[in-house]
């Protein structure tokens, strides 16, 4: 994407005052043939390209546009000033490394995890936990210290039957971040655990103790556990049926349905896909 613009009195208002409402404008003051300017220009251009989604790279030729340079109070070259909503935000004067320029921009530009979290929030609001899960998983890997991401991920995990993982994640949330969402997730976990203690499940578990080799009881119990959001236990149980008899009843179909219902990026999905493929092929 080409995000470079040369500033002139004609486009000054558009870029500096209007465009800076939605993006950060990085204003580079330079002069042709001036060695320090020439040396840093490729670095500035390279970094600007990297952040092109959220950044406009504006260049001011100080020999041609002395008035504009004067308006910004530029004393020497190279100078870079970041502008947001028409106001100077930050900047530097003098030589810089690429790393220093990146660090400066990263302080002010939206982070990747912010975008992922924003997308996931909209999906969760719409009740689409399946699509939100991989986005939150990625955001959590990028920013493992962020409680807001962890909480939304834990919420998805409970909704998708990963009760154990959600509990583990909640255990890492500090007291200061134990807000209304945290309490709501705890409530959901409690309900999921109560569902796993239902009379039907308890009766089937008792029957299985009496007949530990019954593939029929195991299959029925696996289905009940899956309905009670105990996905991991359900998969382990139904796989034990397939290991004995690959073509028992509808066990194979139930197993594939359970695996397909898992969200992309869930470690259980790849683990059990590998297991069933090794049995099928």
UniProtKB/TrEMBL annotation:
<feature type="domain" description="Thioredoxin">
    <location>
        <begin position="1"/>
        <end position="110"/>
    </location>
</feature>
<dbReference type="InterPro" id="IPR011990">
    <property type="entry name" value="TPR-like_helical_dom_sf"/>
</dbReference>
<dbReference type="InterPro" id="IPR036249">
    <property type="entry name" value="Thioredoxin-like_sf"/>
</dbReference>
<dbReference type="Pfam" id="PF14559">
    <property type="entry name" value="TPR_19"/>
</dbReference>
<dbReference type="Pfam" id="PF00085">
    <property type="entry name" value="Thioredoxin"/>
</dbReference>
<dbReference type="Pfam" id="PF14561">
    <property type="entry name" value="TPR_20"/>
</dbReference>
<protein>
    <submittedName>
        <fullName>Tetratricopeptide repeat protein</fullName>
    </submittedName>
</protein>
<dbReference type="InterPro" id="IPR013766">
    <property type="entry name" value="Thioredoxin_domain"/>
</dbReference>
